[in-house]
Amino acid sequence: MPMPPQTLRFFRRGQVVTIDGVTPTRTLLEVLREDLHCTGTKEGCGEGDCGACTVVLGENNNGQLKYSAINSCIRLAHSVDGMAVWTAEDIASTNDVQHPAQEAMVQCHGSQCGFCTPGFVMSLFALYQNHGDQPITRADAQGALSGNLCRCTGYRPILEAAQTMQSLPPVVVNETEVLSNLKLLAHIPRGLEDDFTYKAPQSLPELLQLRARHPGAQLVAGCTDVGLWVTKMHKEFPSVLDVTRVAELRRVEQYPHHIAIGAAVTLTDAFAALVADRPQLKSFAHRFAGLPVRNSGTLGGNVANGSPIGDSMPLLIALGANVVLMRLHKGKIVHREMPLEALYTGYRKNVMAPDEVLAWIKVPKAVPQERCRVYKISKRFEDDISAVCLAINLHIENGVVRKASVGAGGVAATPVRARQTEAALTGQAWSVDTVIAAMTTLRQELSPISDMRASAAYRNTVLGNLLQRYWLESQGLQVVNLEQLTLEGEAA
C-alpha cells in the first residue's frame, strides 16, 4: 500500500510554512505558485535554462546564513525542507521599502516586458546578500546573472543595476531570526521511520542503510537532470533518496597529493576547490552552467548521471580522477575505487550495484610540469550544453611529452578517454609535427554522431582544432578564442 505524501516545512516571510501532502516529484516552483500563490516566480523553460523561476535559499553554514540562487522549476520541493526560501515577493522591507535589488532595477530601467525580472531580481538579491561591503564589479554581476536570460533589455541596464545596488538605502535581512528558525526546523522529525516517499539522510551510514533497503528508489543529488525527467518527460517516482544532506559527503577534503570531493558538494563549491588548485580552470568553471544550476547541482550527481555531454567528466578524466563507490555488506561499510572512466559501461549505464552509491571523487593535485586546459564548444557562450568538450593535460619536461591524459565529451555514448591520442603524444617531442599527427589520431579515434547541437563532421573537425588550439596557447599565442577578447566597458 503506497504511503501518504510527506509534509514539507520551510521558513519564509518570518514564519514556518507547513504544506501537507507534497508528493516526491513535486517541484518547488509548483508549490510556490500553486499552493502559496507566489505568482511573481515565473515558469519559463521548465528546465533550469532561462532563470525566470529563480528563488534564493538560505542554509545554516557553520552559524552563518548562506544564500544560494537556484532554479525552482527543476528543484524538488522536499529538497528545501528545513531551509529558508525567498521569492521576489519577500525581499522588500516590512514597510514596503523596495530592496536595493528591486530599486536599482527601477532606477536603471532594467525591465521591459517584465517576465524575466523577478528571476533577475532574485539573482541580484543573492549577490547583494553574499557580497557584503565589497564593491560589485561588472564581472561579479555577469557571474551572478549567468543563469538569467532576457529577450528585451540587452543586459546593459541590468548590469548597471547590479553595480548600483550598494549605493541605495539598505534593506536588512534579520539573519538571527532566520538562523534561529532553521535550528528549530532541524529538530522536527521528517516523517515516520517506515515512510519512504522522500528521504534525505543526514549521515553516510544512514544513507547506505536506506540504499540497501530501497535499491529501487530514485537517487538525487541536486536534481538538475532528474528535474528534467520530471518536467519534460513527466516521470513520477514513488520514492526518492536525496544524498545532499549527508554531512560526510558535503565536504571537500585536502590531502598531500589529492583533493577528495564528496558527492553532495555543489558544483559551485567543487569547482572553487579545483580552481584554487588550478587557476586556469576558472573560465571553464564559470561556463559549466549558469550559477543557479551550479548552486543546486553536485559534482557527484554529474558524474554518476554519466551523460555523454556532462562537462565535468572530460576534465576529471584528463586530471586522472578516481571515484569511490560505497555500500553496506553484512552490516559493514565497504568501498571500491576505480578510474572515473571505468565507471561507465554504456549510455547512462555504469558498473554500480543497485545498493551502491558514488561517495567521493578523488582528484590528483596539480604538479609543476603539467599543462592542463579544457575547452567547451557550445552554440551559446554561457549557460548552454556542449556540442564538444575536450580536456587535455600534458606533462612536458625538456621539450618532451612525458605523460598525456585526454578526456572528451559529446563525441560518444559515454564520456571517454582518448587513449590512442595519449599514446600518439607520449614520449614525443612537443612540436608541430607531433601535434599534427595527434590531431589525425584524435579525429580517427572518436566517432561522434550528428544531432541538434552539431553534425558529426563539425564535431570531428573541432576535436582536432582544439588540440591545435592547445598547441598555439602553449607557444604563447593567447588571442585565439573569445575568452581572451575584452569588449569595450567590460573591465569596469
What top-tier CATH class of the largest domain fits best? Alpha Beta
Helix content: 25-40%
Rg: 23 Å
First and last CA, distance: 62 Å
Mean of all residue-level pLDDT scores: 92
Description:
The chain has three domains: 6-183, Beta-grasp domain (Ubiquitin-like (UB roll)); 198-364, Uridine Diphospho-n-acetylenolpyruvylglucosamine Reductase, domain 3 (2-Layer Sandwich); 370-482, CO dehydrogenase flavoprotein, C-terminal domain (Enolase-like, domain 1, 2-Layer Sandwich), CATH 3.30.390.50. By secondary structure, it is of the alpha+beta class. β18 (400-409) and β19 (416-417) form a beta hairpin. The termini are far apart. The chain is 31% helix and 22% strand. A five-stranded antiparallel β-sheet has the order 9-10-15-11-12. The radius of gyration is 23 Å and the shape is globular.
